Queue: 2 jobs
Job 1
Amino acid sequence: MLREYLPVLLQILVAMLFAVSALLVSVLVGKRGKRTRAKDLPYECGMIPEGERLPRFSIKFYIVAMLFILFDMEIVFMYPWAVVYRDAIKESSIVFWSMLGFIAILMVGYVYALKKGALDFRK
């Protein structure tokens, strides 16, 4: 059985060795220059930056984006379930109850987000 996983383990080992060696080479060969004010300025195509920086987004934007991704991922699990549901329900009703439990957990998360005011934009 180990023989079947040997190529995968070898690939993981090679990837880890490459990552570690790339980091070590960059530390050993990389230049360590003194930080100056000019180096810390944002680079804009060789021109001196003018005006104010971009406005900050409200944290609500990021929270809504994360919630969208979180609750949108349920479709990834529901679609295959719906495809095999008719055949699987004949054998056992555990398929139905497992999806009902999954939806219940999602609803708890949705209610929690609503209670915390994550979707309230009046503030």
Job 2
Amino acid sequence: MALHRDIFWIGRQWAVTGFGIQAVDQRLRGVLDIEIARLWDDDFVQSRRAKPGLNLEDFDKALTLARTRYPQAPPPECTPVRAATELPPAPVPVAPPPKPAPPVVLALRAEGRLARFLPQWRIRR
């Protein structure tokens, strides 16, 4: 897979992009890439780290930079729960959208005349 268009850091073998961590070598076709959602999955990261021919220093730096750029989201069970006595927030009144302007109608006044006798006009740029 080609590198994502948003490149935040690039090393010798790894790059931190908008996709996550990607191998710079395009011959691998994205086999070793780690997407943002799996940056914090330690088992998955260790499986990538165990591959032969990996520059561990470069990989560790890319992992550190990617984890600082994309912090781990809190697990869903840690979200605060609203009390049953709380009322939902009041809806915000929405203003009606402005009415569109009437379309401009161009009037052609050439009816009943011969075109060769009309004055010529040109659009200036």
